[in-house]
Amino acid sequence: MVHHSITFTASALALAALLLTTTVHAQNVDQSLVSLDPYANETTSQRDERMAWFRDAKFGLFIHWGVYTVPAGTHDGKPINGGGEWILLRGKIPLDQYKTYAQQFNPTQYDPDAWVRLAKQAGMKYIVITAKHHDGFALFDSKASEWDVVDATPYGKDLIKPLAEACRKHGLKLGFYYSQAQDWVQGGNTDHGPAWDPAQPTDMDQYLREIAAPQVKEILSNYGDIAVLWWDTNWGMDRKRSDLLIPMLSLQPGIIHNNRLGGGYQGDIQTPEQHIPGTGLPGDWESCMTMNRTWGFKSYDDQWKSPQTLIRNLIDIASKGGNYLLNVGPTAQGVIPPPSIERLQAMGLWMDTHSDAIYGTTASPCRIPDWGRITTKLGEHSTTLYLHVFDWKKNGEIFLPVDNTVQSCRLLTDPKQTFTAQHHPGRGITVTLAGDVPNPNASVIELIVDAAPVRSASDYLAADDQGVIALPLSEAVIEKPYAVKMRYDAQNQEINRWTDDRAQMSWEFRVQKPGRFTLELATHAQDDTVLLAQVDGQTVQSHIARTGSTFARHTLPPIMLSTAGIHHLKLLPVEGQWTPLRLKSATLRPFAP
Ligand code: GLC
Fold this sequence. Notes:
Blueprint: H1 10-26, H2 44-57, E1 59-63, E2 74-75, E3 78-79, H3 87-90, H4 95-102, H5 112-122, E4 126-132, H6 149-152, H7 160-170, E5 173-178, H8 204-219, E6 228-231, H9 239-245, E7 256-257, E8 286-289, H10 307-319, E9 323-328, H11 338-354, E10 372-378, E11 383-389, E12 397-400, E13 406-411, E14 414-418, E15 420-424, E16 428-432, E17 443-449, E18 469-470, E19 477-479, E20 487-489, E21 494-498, E22 504-511, E23 515-525, E24 529-535, E25 538-544, E26 552-555, E27 559-561, E28 565-573, E29 581-590
Parallel strand pairs: 1-4, 1-9, 4-5, 5-6, 6-7, 8-9
Antiparallel strand pairs: 2-3, 10-11, 11-17, 12-16, 13-14, 13-17, 15-16, 18-29, 19-22, 20-21, 21-29, 22-28, 23-26, 23-27, 23-29, 24-25, 24-28
Helix pairs in contact: 5-7, 5-11, 10-11
The chain binds alpha-D-glucopyranose (GLC).
Residues 64, 83, 85-86, 232-233, 273, 288, 295 line the site of alpha-D-glucopyranose.
């Protein structure tokens, strides 16, 4: 076994020493009084500075790679359900059999420089790779375990080191995914069900001390500057356990970490998985998504999203203020599947001429228009609005409910092509399209207006002719911790997975005619439950009875909306009295006693 020499910088050594003393010291003091989070006392401007590159970047590459690419979705001749990287658990594969797969993991065609160039050409600014996934296998040379690429495979070389070098060479940032809680081989979380092999250790604390903590220290010490630590699944991670890991972040000043550590640590970014939140999310966030169905390579997964869908996903996410972390699953030979390469190249072609409308932008100033999406760049004296037109109708008109004076309006990719843009004071701006579709994936019009965008009153949810205010579920702003999977499910057009009393949702709407309203919901309640609605400082409480297998209409007690203008309505659970609920519709109706 060859151990690569580890080069610590002086400051990293000093920090490591500090970490050791912190740990020893922490045993003698009340843990709840000590915050080990290096960002616990960060000011808003310090945080803004730390998050700046991430907010501008918008687009990153996720790489899921490991031993599971050898079986590639099939074990003992049987296809195994779910993501390819879960095959060890889903297939209940005995550990010694799984380890023989490692003996076939020999990625001789691995070309990290080509991977990084591919990501860069696609327009990506950072890469996050699975340093260790739930199967515990480390893609790096670890002193804490022999279950790594150097000791357990014929390849025998650290896979991370050359990737880090290539990232540095080509100017991309590098982040590590690290499965801190689940490790099915080395004793990480076994709460998810009984172990299937007596060889699986079950002492999670010992695993955290002897494997996870030293490995997190290794990956944050041995590979130069690391921009992101991407924890995954917080199962079994209470505060004490999380506190073993969080101080390690100090090894990489300025590092960003996500919300999946556990122990109540919120991290810097929310991580919606395999979906794009309808209205974006409060704060910083990143949607991670696959191009087909799996994260880790599966030989027979060919359900690829079209390049157009992927390009529009990127635009959709940027228009809601988030980042897109798009996955590839290389094979055991070290090859990124050709359909993934083609898609990244297609995205790159679009980005070559449109990236100004993505990088450094912020969310749309108004609700999603029916013709596409909007991204924003605030300037000192003007604002650039990028109108990403999905539905380009020759000589058609598009409307945006932004009440500002227009300075200029042209095609992003051809400044000579201008469009008529008319400001209707109090209402918004109409742009008249001309000519054939400039780009079938998304054509971008650069519209410059005079000042910070002013959202016009017509953009808010408001009453129809009958005075009824529909609150679309797709536009509910959902707030929840990572562990709660509640979301708007576009396929079933409902909000589901509301399994927990820590999640809530809200809407913003405009009242023209003040008065009393009742909120009517179509709900599916697994059991009797209690729901609160809050608006303008009033709270109404309502008991929802078990609905059986269908959705049932439920009307809450009346609320008073006494002023014309913008209001917020929040739906939230009563702590401790919650049972899972699904929602099919939400409507405010004028109250007629
Ligand atoms: C997960 C999974 C997983 C995948 C991932 C990406 O929750 O367990 O296999 O790595 O998140 O977001």
